[in-house]
Write a structure and sequence with these properties.
By secondary structure, this protein is of the alpha+beta class. The protein is built from 23 helices and 15 strands. It has a four-stranded antiparallel sheet. It has a three-stranded mixed sheet with strand order 2-1-5, with no helix packed on it. Helix 19 packs antiparallel against helix 22. About 30% of the residues are buried.
């Protein structure tokens, strides 16, 4: 810095610290008597150059600077540019004159400052040339601009494109060089070449549009870029992403399916709940049933077996109805593979048969428990004390001399009645579904050791048309099993009125405390005196009917995809189902519903049946008044059956004794 004086001020937003450092080092390394092309600078050789980044107390203030021919000079990564900041050159006398206070007119914010001695243009030109030599600046502005104006070039390796196309195809070649799945290697190669050519063409088109956009293309170029990019993504996307709705198809539907007479579309957005779906939002222009039928028919005509359209409540709507009282709905468009339920597999049939066998054995166990009085007391005591090896040998000896066939003969009617009620439940579902044109999958029976069964899981294998059909299918199963169970229970009550009959079996009277409805009926028919004893004599049909009614009531609870949940969803909507599900979980959690069955049944629902029914086309249109009343009756029956009776004073006295 002992050879040159001056100041180079960098323009705001240009250059980098690394470049400023490089420029400063070049200044330091240049001798005082350096020449440019064998020519000594005409201007007075400066003593020091101060940059903005290295300004210190030894550098002069900005007063007394000289403006170079009304222009600014700066350094930008090794090139000179005429739009750069100010360059000020100081002499020794100028430095001495400017060591004092800087006048306001010559402050840092001022762009033009007067100099004591303004040099001539020729002197300035020579000074600029000398500064270029000192700083090592090259004129690269035009060259860099030409490079930026060149169109984007994209080159593709044909082998890579072929590999991409083959990986995206569905017929890979075999390892031994033979054909693929279809045994035609030549056609496979042709398909791969075609796919590679498509990819290459799309990418080249994108490169052209990118160049146009970078050069300031119009909006049409941006739209073309988006279209070509969508085509490229369509070619390269994996197979699992193929089940999506095409935006071009959505535009066709908006123009040809929806309209002012059916549903005026205002917005088309991606669905957040189901991947691959598109949501059509807008205003309804007619009755939901009529509009949905027209929309579905037209979509099936334009895109057969490709899409399924669902009518749902608008997710973001604050009110369910608009100003004219029409429902605020939206149409959800899904690929057919996504919307339809999965098909039944062989494994599901095997699991269904296995669970049915276990369920039958569980029902037989309940019958054996009801006829436990037929087992000798010695065997019961030995079973309870079979912890030691001596007691086990004694138990084996007692069992060897005991014939269990009478017990099995007495127990199987009870088990068969419980299992038969569940079969009636399943038949009721299937008969109603067949009348509606719906398909159901195999039933998965859920066994339970206390009442024999917890019911069964029956899934839809086709889309349910509307909420009324879903209500009828769910109610059909409950009505069938409820009718069989009620017949068993009422016949058992009538046969139990004669406490001296030989066909009666003893059961604990506390059993009748588990249900308000069933316990009240039992006391009415059997009598309060008989029910006050620790054990009461009842007919086996009453036991089978009791277990079946409790099982039916459990399945009638309004939660998830249970029959009761489907009924509430169909009759009152998803919001009502959400509220009723919370109350049901609370009742099961606190033991208010189902007594000792609340915990195992609650876990079963939580893991297997908590999700509401989704395979429904028209989620909006409700049911008529009669179905709504029947739904309310089902809920009342479920709560009355599962709600335990309050203990009486006699019960409390017996418990204390």
């Amino acid at each position: 810095q002992g050879h040159a004086k001056g100041e180079l001020r960098r323009a705001p937003g240009r250059g980098t610290p690394a470049r400023r450092s490089r420029v400063t080092n070049s200044m330091k390394a240049t001798p005082a008597a350096s020449t440019t092309g064998g020519r000594t600078p005409a201007t007075a050789v400066p003593n020091r150059i101060c940059t903005t980044s290295s300004r210190s107390a030894n550098c002069p203030p900005r007063g007394g600077s000289t403006r170079v021919a009304g222009q600014r000079l700066g350094v930008f990564g090794g090139r000179r540019r005429r739009t750069a900041p100010v360059v000020r050159v100081f002499g020794d006398e100028d430095e001495e004159a400017t060591t004092g206070e800087v006048p306001p007119s010559q402050s840092e914010n001022s762009n033009i400052t007067a100099a004591p001695d303004r040099p001539s243009p020729a002197s300035l030109a020579r000074t600029l040339s000398d500064l270029d030599a000192i700083l090592g600046v090259e004129d690269e502005e035009e060259e860099q601009q030409d490079k930026r104006d060149e169109p984007l070039k994209v080159e593709f390796n044909p082998d890579i494109l072929k590999k991409i196309a083959q990986a995206d195809g569905k017929s890979p070649t075999s390892a031994d060089g033979g054909g693929g799945y279809f045994g035609d290697k030549g056609s496979e190669t042709d398909d791969g070449d075609k796919e590679a050519e498509k990819v290459k063409s799309a990418a080249e088109q994108i490169s052209k549009i990118v160049s146009e956009v970078r050069q300031g293309g119009e909006k049409s170029s941006e739209e073309s870029l988006r279209k070509e990019f969508d085509k490229l993504v369509e070619l390269l996307k994996p197979e699992e992403m193929s089940n999506t709705v095409s935006r071009e198809d959505c535009k066709v539907m908006k123009e040809r399916v929806f309209g002012a007479e059916t549903f005026w579309v205002t917005e088309i957005v991606q669905n957040d709940d189901i991947i691959g779906g598109m949501l059509f939002k807008g205003n309804l222009r007619g009755e939901v049933d009529a509009v949905y039928e027209k929309v579905e028919t037209e979509i099936k005509r334009l895109f057969p077996d490709k899409y399924e359209v669902l009518a749902i409540e608008e997710p973001d709507a604050e009110d369910f109805e608009d100003l004219k009282g029409r429902e605020r709905i939206a149409f959800l468009l899904l690929p057919a593979q996504v919307a339809k339920p999965p098909s039944t597999t062989r494994g599901q049939y095997v699991v269904s048969l296995l669970l049915a066998t276990i369920g039958a054995l569980s029902c037989l166990q309940v019958g054996i428990g009801a006829e436990l009085s037929m087992v000798p007391q010695e065997i019961i005591d030995a079973t309870l004390k079979s912890g030691t090896a001596e007691n086990q040998e004694s138990l084996q000896g007692l069992l060897a001399g005991w014939d269990p066939r009478p017990l099995i003969q007495a127990a199987w009617p009870i088990g068969a009645a419980i299992f038969g009620a569940e079969i009636a439940h399943d038949i009721g579902h299937r008969v109603v579904a067949a009348s509606k044109g719906l398909k159901l999958g195999p039933s998965f029976i859920i066994p339970n050791g206390q009442i024999g069964l917890f019911g069964s899981i029956t899934q839809y294998k086709s889309l349910c048309k509307n909420r009324a059909d879903m209500f009828d299918v769910a109610y059909g199963g409950l009505a069938a099993s409820g009718a069989v169970a009620s017949a068993l229970f009422l016949s058992g009550l009538i046969l139990s009125m004669d406490q001296g009959a030989e066909s009666l079996v003893p059961v604990p009277s506390v059993l009748f405390q588990g249900s308000v409805l069933l316990g009240t009926l039992a006391k009415t028919f059997v009598g309060s005196a008989a029910m006050a004893k620790s054990q009461v004599m009842v007919h086996p049909n009453l036991i089978a009917g009791w277990c079946s009614l409790v099982c039916t009531a459990l399945n009638a609870l309004p939660v998830g995809s249970l029959d009761g949940g489907r009924i509430v969803q169909a009759a009152y909507g998803k919001r009502a189902l959400s509220i009723s599900a919370i109350l049901t979980y609370a009742g099961l959690g606190f033991g208010l519903l189902g007594s000792t069955l609340s915990l195992p049944f609650g876990l079963y629902v939580l893991f297997c049946q908590r999700v509401p029914e989704q395979y429904l086309k028209n989620h909006v249109t409700g049911v008529n008044t009669n179905r709504a009343l029947f739904g309310a009756a089902v809920l009342i029956f479920a709560v009355a059956t599962l709600l335990p009776m309050a203990p009486t004073d006699l019960d409390i006295l017996q418990a204390t004794i």
